[in-house]
């Protein structure tokens, strides 16, 4: 599908002086994609190229006698222009970036794309698939279907290691690298997009793209995500009639079969699975249709059998029809993984625990970049392992899934982790429903505790665990501790506030080569995992909490050491039992002074626990054992919820992580190591008053954010004294590094008190022998202290109310989904829906639980119809030229909006662009997603001292990266980046040569937000449908 | 364990006002940390000295990077690298261009050249202001001077437009630029009692009345001489001032003037007799100052002359300020009744400004 790309260079400013003699610059630009810059005004390009390739604008200084000097470049990713709902034009000031000098002035550019009609049926481009970094359903969309896991990986040679690098300038080498990486990530994104289209999705949520700089052996760009079918939310006003009159939508159902849309389904072979149901082969149409499955019939479990055979067939699909009810597309994929960390209500049924797998690999040269089989196979192996772990926990899915690598020389540790979970099959288009599901489905799931209930069979537990009856509903069993990688579910009942809990660990390792090195690492890994886990458990107990969310364990490999850093947010879940204290036991009980020492320590620990309970306001209602009254099954041993396994060391699964005893947690001090551990437990200083911190999206227990946010990145590198390093010294250094870093953050942000550091993301790397680098990105959000108290009260009340209405809620979840489900700002309309819907349906609750809920089904159906219509039109008219689908578009819509966002820009010369690692902006509503921001920069200097040393160099570079991200967002017409993440910050220095180099990779979602206070002023919310049209008409430049 | 690298970068650039002040005052990082420790911040926040050190370093680095932009404040507004709220931008600029009274008194009226810059360490030791801070202030004066030197239009407006300063600060800079351009002597011992404010007040009056811009006919007259409108005194006007000499040279005119003033002020002045005795001296002084202004050298000595010829004689006779006011009002007004004197407008332009200046200069 060819397209026309129009670029207009409007102006330049703040350009550097290139001619010393005249103090002037004769600037001109070259515009082009691919490496052949063009001076023509217009050039035709394929959209496939458009997707892969960023637009490249080179600013040069004209020299009459010598070669023209480069001033810098601007790379513009034009992907957002390729799908209709995002930006229609990119226009604004872009910093001109040079890899040697940094930002050198700005250039004002206007870019537009006109795509022609789709000429090629077998297209390779994936225009139209939306990408989101956000790991939850984006705020102004609702999920029609969550299809599941998509992954892709591309490899190439690293230009830095090519022979040509010896003769070209550092600038040329850096630019080659930057270009290659953006090319590769473009290609990757396009390939993922194709997979999503194949799955009949229209979006990728939780898109995570990473680079592995494997050095000599090449460059790997890999990405994972969750394919979804999303539906743009219209405003509540337009939505309400749709759901109250399902019949109206049903009438439109014939439109489900647009006859022209069949050609792409050739590789989908519908498979008959359920006995007793009629097979329909809808080849000519092959429109994904919906069916309401699962409920009551109990067939879901049986489907599991035949499905197993299909396990490896990735795009197999099963079409099933049951007694006149509409269709539902069932497809299975190899890995039932979800990169999401927050879910629509009702989606998450049970959580099993954290599953993780690691594997140590020796890197070899990638011989054929076109067939990245080895790397693919590596990851497939790990994913398989994760899957089997999940299965062992009685779960059929893994949520909050992520993958990472750590590379040192030719050794590479691949890690994957996630949370085993049972999901609600009604949402899951994916039919991965295993045996464990059926019995759960009939249960009335109480909100606030349902997800805590064990998914595995109590009598046939996968590991020794200590179960009790749920403290909330008293019906189901819960473990005593719960570890997860996801965000706290919005409906979870939490007592008190949460806090950031970190386990930090270093282990020395002998320097070795190749296989010996890999073996040494593999041998160390299980012990590290074990210790990290123990530390987490200890710290959790010390805080008086019983669950961890957002757990992320990072193992970093260096020349002579391994580093483990686990971060999570501890909370007290009301459903789980009160954690026991920590008891210290000495080994030589006869020694009097030793005894005294122990008891002293014990007292200190008890004091700390009491203090923490007060600090985090943990005061669970006292429940005596008799009231619980249930026979607690064999108080065997503590649950081990962190199932982990390291490649080449199966014994770790056998490791008994429990420490005996029913509730007190015993620490045995038998050697200095243990002593050290206890000490380190007590050295963690709580944040100063007025500060809270967590690594999840929102802080449990705080829900009245005010609008002030400050995103920041902090980097620290320390040099260890190389002399006789011991594990203890190393641990202490590392611990101090992290603690000091946190203290610094608290000090720097003291003006924001009361505030909370959210999404605190620590990354550790070991750039050299004796260097440890820690990078932290987080956001500080202020909150109103006084309101907090009130809302927590009402929150409790609400949760009580909720419990009573949870039946309806479960059934109506698509309704609730439609409304903005901002966890901290529940929208009033959502409630109204709920009430109206539940009052409309006069069926008793008990019945409803087993019967098909037509209103919700119809709603889903109608949205699906809309989607298909949209798609059909898309295909007919070319990928982004869509017409008005539902209502007449008011041409004013867009204009109005622009006007509304204009004033803040007019006030200050540069519009403010907010950045946050969270998926939302407190006190504001995201009205539009403009596309993904994925940028990769290299900066190098040969005058390190002159630029203020390493700190000055990196400080300036990070500030520049922020500036470039903001400029791109502003040019897209956005005013914020959400789900911002700095995925890589590789820093290398050579002070002797006065040189340094740094690579940074950032990504996020560009959005438009409107302050909630502004929303109230503007009563007529712009209908979402208006965003679709009018993107191409009448826009001609140059 | 040594820290190799330690940075903090916020999406919104963090500005700590206290640290900014310390940086502007030219303290080194270690001095700044020591001063901050003394302020009791550690006790307030529970932070450690290491945290303070790292924080101070961070801020200093940020300020260092911002300094380049502060040299051209409009750049600060348009740049993309640092996201700073407008109110903070204004604060950064205002503080950066603020100066110390003690310092400005030292360089006021001096040529803003390399030579003067070399003397900055003397000024630094004399005033107790760090050399770094002196340099910044001096460079600010010089930068503003260079930018507005060749510009047409109102001096204050030009400064405000190119440096985005507050009205108050822009006026002060106008005075500094005006003094530097005309090289008025302000450093003499006699003038030590005068504050920068006194001089700035006089400068403003002189800019308003004695420069080319003051005439208000510049736009219609595209003469090349009209280029420096607010910076330079109106040469023609200074030339014309010679004509005033007749007031003291012509004996009759002088006597008539005296009698007019004395008649009007009799009984109203506490120091009438002293005034009567000194009238001819004072009048001669004031008129001679005017007549001498054709020479650059004498222009420079304007303030010295005024203090010598008028302020000091009055002060030695203990004239109250109110009497000085009454006298000067009457002295300038009476000239209108002198029939033989033809330069009424010239006199008003001269005396109007001078009267304001003298009243301001007349204090202890």
Characterise this structure.
The complex is a heterodimer of chains A (1038) and B (364). Chain A has 22 helices and 33 strands. In chain A, α3 runs parallel beside α17 (828-840). Among the domains of chain A are: 1-121, Immunoglobulin-like (Sandwich); 129-234 and 334-430, Translation Initiation Factor IF3 (2-Layer Sandwich), CATH 3.30.110; 912-1013, Translation Initiation Factor IF3 (2-Layer Sandwich), CATH 3.30.110.70. Chain A is of the alpha+beta class and 1038 residues long. The relative contact order of chain A is 0.12. Chain B has 364 residues and is mainly α. Chain B folds into 3 domains: 17-84, no CATH class; 101-183, no CATH class; 235-361, Globin-like (Orthogonal Bundle). The interface between A and B is large, with 56 and 39 residues.
Question: What's the layout of helices and strands?
Answer:
The complex is a heterodimer of chains A (1038) and B (364).
Chain A: E1 2-13, E2 27-32, E3 43-46, H1 47-52, E4 55-61, E5 69-76, E6 90-98, E7 102-115, E8 130-131, E9 141-156, H2 170-198, E10 203-213, E11 219-232, H3 236-244, H4 246-251, H5 299-309, E12 317-322, E13 325-331, E14 348-362, H6 373-392, E15 397-408, E16 411-423, H7 437-442, E17 467-469, E18 477-479, E19 482-483, E20 494-508, H8 514-542, E21 547-557, E22 561-573, E23 582-586, H9 592-615, H10 625-628, E24 643-646, H11 651-654, E25 665-669, H12 672-683, E26 691-693, E27 705-719, H13 727-748, E28 755-765, E29 771-783, H14 785-804, H15 806-811, H16 813-818, H17 828-840, H18 845-850, H19 854-877, H20 892-907, E30 914-915, E31 924-941, H21 949-971, E32 976-990, E33 995-1011, H22 1012-1017
Parallel strand pairs in A: 8-10, 14-24, 19-21, 23-25, 26-28, 30-32
Antiparallel strand pairs in A: 1-3, 1-7, 2-4, 4-5, 6-7, 9-11, 10-11, 12-13, 14-16, 15-16, 17-18, 20-22, 21-22, 27-29, 28-29, 31-33, 32-33
Helix pairs in contact in A: 3-17
Chain B: E1 2-10, H1 17-24, H2 29-38, H3 41-45, H4 49-70, H5 73-78, H6 86-97, H7 101-107, H8 114-118, H9 120-127, H10 131-149, H11 155-163, H12 167-182, H13 196-210, H14 212-215, H15 235-240, H16 246-249, H17 251-265, H18 272-292, H19 296-300, H20 302-316, H21 321-334, H22 344-361
Helix pairs in contact in B: 2-4, 9-10, 10-12, 11-12, 12-13, 13-22, 17-18, 17-21, 18-20, 21-22
């Amino acid at each position: 599908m060819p397209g026309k790309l129009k670029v207009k260079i409007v102006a330049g400013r703040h350009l550097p002086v290139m001619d010393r003699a005249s103090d002037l610059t004769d600037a001109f630009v070259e515009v082009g994609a691919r490496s052949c810059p063009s001076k023509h005004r217009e050039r035709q390009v394929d959209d496939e190229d458009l997707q892969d390739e960023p637009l490249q604008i080179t600013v040069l200084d004209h020299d009459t006698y010598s070669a023209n000097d480069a001033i810098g470049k601007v790379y513009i990713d034009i992907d957002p222009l390729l799908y209709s709902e995002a930006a229609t034009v990119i226009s604004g000031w872009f910093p001109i970036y040079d890899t040697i000098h940094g930002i050198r002035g700005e250039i004002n550019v206007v870019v537009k794309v006109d795509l022609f009609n789709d000429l090629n049926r077998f297209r390779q481009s994936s225009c139209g698939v939306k990408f989101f970094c956000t790991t939850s359903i984006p705020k102004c969309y609702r999920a029609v279907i969550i299809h599941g896991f998509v992954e892709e990986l591309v490899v190439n040679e690293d230009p830095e290691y090519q022979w040509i690098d010896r003769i070209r300038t550092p600038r040329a080498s850096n630019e080659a690298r930057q270009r290659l990486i953006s090319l590769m990530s473009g290609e990757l994104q396009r390939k993922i997009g194709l997979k999503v289209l194949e799955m009949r999705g229209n979006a990728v949520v939780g898109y995570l793209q990473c680079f592995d700089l494997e050095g000599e052996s090449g460059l790997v760009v890999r990405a994972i995500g969750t394919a979804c079918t999303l539906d743009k939310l219209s405003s509540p006003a337009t939505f309400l009639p749709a759901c109250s009159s399902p019949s109206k939508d049903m009438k439109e159902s014939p439109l489900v079969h647009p006859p022209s849309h069949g050609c792409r389904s050739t590789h989908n072979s519908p498979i008959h699975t359920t006995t007793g149901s009629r097979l329909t082969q809808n080849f000519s149409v092959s429109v994904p249709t919906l069916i309401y499955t699962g409920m009551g019939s109990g067939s879901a479990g049986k489907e599991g059998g035949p499905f197993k055979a299909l396990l490896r067939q990735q795009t197999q699909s099963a079409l099933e029809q049951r007694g006149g009810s509409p269709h539902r597309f069932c497809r299975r994929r190899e890995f039932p993984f979800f990169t999401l960390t927050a879910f629509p209500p009702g989606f998450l049924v049970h959580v099993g625990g954290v599953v993780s797998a690691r594997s140590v690999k020796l890197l070899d040269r990638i011989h054929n970049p076109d067939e990245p089989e080895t790397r693919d196979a590596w990851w497939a192996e790990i994913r398989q392992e994760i899957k089997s772990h999940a299965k062992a926990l009685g779960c059929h899915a893994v949520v909050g899934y992520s993958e990472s690598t750590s590379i040192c020389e030719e050794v590479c540790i691949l890690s994957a982790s996630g949370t085993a979970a049972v999901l609600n099959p009604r949402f899951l288009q994916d039919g991965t429903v295993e045996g464990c599901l059926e019995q759960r489905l009939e249960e009335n799931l109480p909100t606030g505790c349902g997800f805590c209930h064990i998914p595995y069979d109590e009598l046939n537990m996968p590991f020794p665990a200590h179960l009790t009856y749920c403290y909330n509903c008293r019906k189901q069993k819960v473990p005593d501790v719960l570890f997860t990688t996801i965000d706290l579910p919005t409906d979870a009942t939490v007592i008190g506030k949460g806090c950031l809990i970190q386990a930090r660990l270093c282990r020395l390792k002998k320097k070795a080569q190749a296989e010996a090195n890999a073996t040494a690492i593999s041998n160390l890994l299980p012990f590290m995992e074990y210790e990290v886990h123990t530390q987490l458990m200890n710290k959790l107990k010390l805080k008086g909490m019983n669950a961890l969310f957002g757990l992320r364990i990072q193992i970093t490999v260096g020349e002579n050491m391994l580093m483990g850093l686990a971060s999570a947010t501890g909370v007290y879940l009301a459903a789980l039992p009160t954690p026991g204290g920590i008891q210290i036991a000495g080994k030589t009980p006869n020694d009097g002074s030793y005894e005294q020492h122990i008891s002293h320590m014990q007292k200190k620990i008890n004091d700390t626990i009491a203090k923490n309970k007060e600090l985090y306001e943990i005061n669970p209602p006292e429940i005596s054992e008799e009231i619980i009254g249930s026979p607690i099954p064999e108080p065997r041993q503590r649950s081990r919820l962190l199932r982990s396994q390291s490649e080449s060391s199966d014994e770790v699964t056998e490791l008994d992580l429990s420490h005996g005893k029913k509730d007190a947690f015993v620490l045995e001090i038998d050697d200095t190591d243990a002593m050290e551990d206890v000490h380190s437990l007590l050295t963690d200083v709580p944040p100063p008053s007025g500060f809270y911190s967590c690594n999840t999206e929102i802080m449990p227990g705080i829900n009245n954010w005010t609008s002030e946010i400050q995103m920041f990145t902090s980097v620290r590198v320390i040099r260890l004294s190389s002399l006789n390093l011991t594990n203890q010294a190393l641990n202490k250094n590392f611990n101090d590094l992290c603690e000091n870093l946190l203290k610094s953050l608290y000090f720097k942000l003291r003006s924001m008190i009361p505030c909370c550091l959210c999404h605190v993301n620590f990354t550790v790397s070991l750039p050299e022998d004796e260097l440890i680098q820690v990078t932290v990105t987080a956001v500080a959000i202020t909150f109103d202290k006084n309101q907090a108290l009130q809302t927590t009260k009402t929150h409790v009340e609400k949760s009580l109310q909720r419990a009573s209405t949870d039946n309806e809620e479960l059934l109506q979840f698509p309704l609730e989904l439609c409304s903005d489900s901002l966890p901290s700002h529940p929208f009033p309309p959502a409630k109204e829906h709920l009430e109206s819907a539940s009052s409309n349906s006069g069926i008793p609750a008990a019945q409803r639980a087993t019967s098909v809920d037509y209103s919700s089904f119809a709603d889903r159906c109608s949205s699906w119809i809309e989607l298909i219509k949209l798609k059909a039109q898309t295909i007919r008219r070319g990928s982004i030229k869509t017409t008005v689908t539902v209502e007449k578009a008011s041409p004013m819509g867009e204009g109005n909006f622009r006007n509304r966002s204009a004033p803040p820009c007019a006030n200050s010369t540069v519009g403010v662009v907010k950045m946050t690692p969270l998926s939302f902006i407190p006190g504001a509503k995201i009205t539009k997603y403009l596309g993904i921001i994925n940028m990769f920069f290299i900066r190098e200097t040969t005058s390190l001292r002159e630029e203020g040393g390493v700190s000055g160099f990196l400080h300036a570079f990070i500030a520049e990266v922020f500036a470039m991200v903001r400029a791109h967002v502003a040019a897209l017409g956005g005013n914020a980046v959400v789900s911002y993440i700095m995925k890589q910050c590789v820093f290398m220095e050579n002070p002797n040569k006065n040189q340094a180099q740094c690579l940074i990779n950032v990504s996020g979602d560009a959005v438009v937000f409107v302050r909630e206070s502004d929303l109230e002023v503007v009563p007529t919310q712009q209908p979402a449908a208006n965003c679709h049209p009018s993107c191409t008409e009448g826009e001609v430049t140059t | 364990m040594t820290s190799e690298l330690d940075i903090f970068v916020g999406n919104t650039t963090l500005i700590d006002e206290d640290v900014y002040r310390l940086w502007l005052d030219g303290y080194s990082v270690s001095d700044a940390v020591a001063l901050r420790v003394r302020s009791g911040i550690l006790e307030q926040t529970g932070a450690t000295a290491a945290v303070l050190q790292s924080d101070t370093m961070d801020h200093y680095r940020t300020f260092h990077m911002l300094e380049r932009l502060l040299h051209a404040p409009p750049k600060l507004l348009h740049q993309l690298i640092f996201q700073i709220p407008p109110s903070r931008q204004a604060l950064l600029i205002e503080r950066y261009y603020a100066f110390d009274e003690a310092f400005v008194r030292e360089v006021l009226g001096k040529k803003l050249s390399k030579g003067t810059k070399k003397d900055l360490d003397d000024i630094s030791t004399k005033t107790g202001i760090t050399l770094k801070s002196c340099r910044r202030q001096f460079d600010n004066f010089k930068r503003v001077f260079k930018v507005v030197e060749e510009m047409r239009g109102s001096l204050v407006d030009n400064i405000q437009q190119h440096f985005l300063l507050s009205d108050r600060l822009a006026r002060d800079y106008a005075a500094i630029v005006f003094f530097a351009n005309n090289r008025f002597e302000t450093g003499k011992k006699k003038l030590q009692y005068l504050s920068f404010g006194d001089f700035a007040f006089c400068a403003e009056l002189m800019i308003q009345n004695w420069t080319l811009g003051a005439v208000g006919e510049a736009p219609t007259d595209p003469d090349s001489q009209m280029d420096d409108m607010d910076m330079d005194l109106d040469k023609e006007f200074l030339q014309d001032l010679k004509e005033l000499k007749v007031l003291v040279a012509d004996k009759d005119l002088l006597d008539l003037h005296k009698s007019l003033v004395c008649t009007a002020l009799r009984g109203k002045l506490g120091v009438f007799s002293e005034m009567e005795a000194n009238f001819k001296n004072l009048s001669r002084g004031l008129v001679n100052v005017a007549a001498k202004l054709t020479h650059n050298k004498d222009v420079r000595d304007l303030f010295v002359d005024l203090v010598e010829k008028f302020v000091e004689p009055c002060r030695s006779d203990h004239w109250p300020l109110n009497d000085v006011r009454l006298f000067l009002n009457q002295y300038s007004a009476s000239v209108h009744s002198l029939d033989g004197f033809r330069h009424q407008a010239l006199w008003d332009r001269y005396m109007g400004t001078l009267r304001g200046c003298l009243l301001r200069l007349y204090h202890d």
